[in-house]
Amino acid sequence: MLKRSQRSCSQARPNALIPTDSSANCTAAWPSAAAQLAGAFWPGPLSLVLPKADSIPDIVTAGGKTVAVRCPAHPVFSAVLAKCGFPLAAPSANRSNRVSPTRAEHVVDQLGGRIPLVLDGGACDLGIESTVLDLTGDTPTLLRPGMISLGQLQAVLGPVATAKPPAAAEPLKSPGQLQQHYSPRAKLILVEGELDAALGQADVAAHVIARTAVPAAWPSERWHRLPDAAAGFARELYDTLHRCDRLGAETILVQPLPDGDEWAALRNRLNRAAGA
Question: The whole model's pTM is what?
């Protein structure tokens, strides 16, 4: 079964979502690194880019020679895969460059009337897209950071490179490699320096995403407090961006994120959402 959302094939690659026992049916090679990573992180939010098998249609890979494979941990989709018994090609259910959905209502907001069915498995456990690792070169290369961090990958494999931005004419091996991606309708601004100083220059009509309590001078309905921990922040980030859009926000200010490996994927998503 192939599902396609409102996106250009040149802009994104859907992941092939697969049961753990059918990896060889999707790929032309299954190196020892793939076996190690699958053993450590599957089922879970890790997509592995490998040479595609001849049986995988070109429409799945936008004509490319590689395919990203993943075994999801969510019990509802695991049950769907078990019933199917064959791989499913499933891009994220959002319009091109827009915020990924983490709840069924987000899908309906963006694709209502364009797709016949939404399977509601509840809110996403992690909140952001999977880590994507390319295993087709001499050195494993991180194409998109996720909640499985670079450090965790290195603990299993040893050296892991980080991908450079793709050239304009170069086919994308992974979603999330465009400079602007995951964007709300509102203008998203990443605050540099102290949040209080930025608030002093901002219009109070702006919405704010922060890890601190709302100041007395700021309208509480336009202040969205997220957890201090990276995992909790990730779980709520996209839902909060969708909420800002539903509330008619024109501008969203985001408090600077902490340094550290566990925040790398969130910095990546917000930089791309802001087109930075």
Answer: 0.89
Asked whether the CA dihedral 97, 223, 257, 47 is positive or negative, the reply is negative
Domain borders along the chain are 15-92+129-162, 187-273
Give me the phi and psi of 34, to 5 degrees please.
-65, -40
pLDDT at 57 over 70: yes
Nearest to 131 by CA among 273, 262, 240: 262
The mean per-residue pLDDT over the stretch 127-135 comes to 96
The tokens describing 106, both together, are 């987000």
CA-closest candidate to residue 129, choices 18, 238, 249 = 238
Residue 224: strand, helix, or coil: strand
Strand 46-51 and strand 66-70: pairing?
A: antiparallel
Nearest to 44 by CA among 9, 12, 11, 20: 20
* 8-state DSSP, 261: G
Q: What is the CA radius of gyration of the chain?
A: 19
In which residue are the tokens 């040149």 written? 10
DSSP of 22-54: GHHHHBS---HHHHHHHHHH-SSSEEEEEEBPT
Write down the CATH number for the domain with range 15-92+129-162.
3.90.870.10
Residues near 243 by beta carbon (within 8 Å), at least 6 away in sequence: 224
